[in-house]
Each structure stands twice: as C-alpha cells, then as structure tokens.
Amino acid sequence: MSNTTARRVLIASAAMGLALAAAPSVAEAHENVTKTNHAVRVALTVQGPDGLLFKGKIRTKGHTVTTATGGTHTCDGTNGAANPSAVPTPTAALDDAARKRHFTWDGTWYASFDDYSVDTIKNVNGGASAYWNISVNGVPTPVGGCQFKLKAGDKVAFTWTAF
Fold this sequence. Notes:
alpha+beta, three-stranded antiparallel β-sheet
C-alpha cells in the first residue's frame, strides 16, 4: 500500500469515526426539536366586561381546535410558520379550559392569518365595540393565539377590551 493510499484510508476512517461519534448528539438534537409539544401548566384568566369569567391553572399543549363558527383547524404553534414544530398555545389553553371546566367559547377562522379570532367566551361577545385581547405574562401577544409559544408557568389572559 502506498503512502498516498494509506493516508486516504486513514483520513476516511477518521472522518467516519467523527461522523459516528457525532451521530448520537445529532439524534438528540433532532429529538429535542420534534418533542416540543409537551403539556405545560399555565395560569389562565378570562376577564369579561363585568368581571372575572374564569381563573385557574390548566395543563395544555398545542392541538386541533374546533369552534362552531370557525370549524376545525390546527392550533399548535405551527400556524403561520410561527414555530418549526408543535408547541402549547394560548388558544389551545382556552380550549382545554373550556372543555375541562365546561364553558363555551367560539372563534372565527381566518385562513389569511392561519389563526382564530376569539369572538365569544362564556356567552360574552366582543361584537362591533370590543374584542378579546390575548396577553401572556402581562404583554399582548405579537402573533395570534394559535401561534404564540407558551412555557410552563406562563400567565395567559383573555381580556374583553372595548375599542
């Protein structure tokens, strides 16, 4: 075997060894990206024009949501390409609270935003003079309620807000 051939074999073997050594960390990184939709516990508050409509802790993760007006759509943070994989969201938290605590909510689906507009919670409608503002940790969300990523311990609020 010539020196050139021996060096090529050595370089190829070293490259293969490095690739195999890196494989577990690449797999772990991929695993962390694909498993982002773990259920988290958040504090959810719904404040209507006449007072508190709901307050409680809720476990939630992104999921498909169905409303009477808007139909069935994904609400898992991938909406509008906001996140690369599914995550817990404010609207999914509202939906989970409504199902678990037996109250209703409704929203219109806007395909152009790939998100719901929350119209009614517990029979309180925003109508032409108000809307349901979504905030997390006291800050209005810069994206829709199916796009914003929640973390454990976040404080989510849906607040009836007059124009």
